[in-house]
Amino acid sequence: MSDPISIFFEAWQIEDAKKRLEKITQSSVKDIQYNDPRTPNTLVGIDALSEYVGMFSANAPGWSANVVKSDTIGEMTRATVAFSGLGPDGSKTVQHGQYFVEKHNHLISRMYGFVGTGEPE
């Protein structure tokens, strides 16, 4: 079985709503809870999360999101994700995010995302 966190972030580059929802469904429990700095409230459920992720692919066409590092202690996984694509000036840009992920039955149940990695970039 592939890592659900990697599968989840594959969805971030999928523009087709149905295919994006399929990836998120493969990786997450039905009532997943998600927060990051751009969500004013906790997103709850696969549909809400798929809609939110769709805004990324719509606003950053051609960009990808890939897990570049992760480690797990107990029930918590910390994942560093590289968001990359062409910036407004046409040059390749990479931005990192740090995610803390809880799983239930090998699927993502709760995820908190932060801008950057906590280290100077």
Short overview:
The protein is of the alpha+beta class. It has 3 helices and 6 strands.
Salient structural properties:
single chain; 121 residues; alpha+beta; six-stranded mixed beta sheet; 6 strands
Major beta-sheet overview:
6 strands, mixed
Radius of gyration: 14 Å
Structural class based on helices, strands and sheet pairing: alpha+beta
Helix content: 25-40%
Layout of helices and strands:
Layout: H1 4-10, H2 17-27, E1 28-35, E2 43-44, H3 46-59, E3 64-73, E4 76-86, E5 92-104, E6 107-115
Write up what this structure looks like:
This protein has 3 helices and 6 strands. By secondary structure, it is α+β, with helices and mostly antiparallel strands. Helix 1 runs antiparallel to helix 2 (17-27) and helix 2 packs across helix 3. The model has no long low-confidence stretch (mean pLDDT 93).
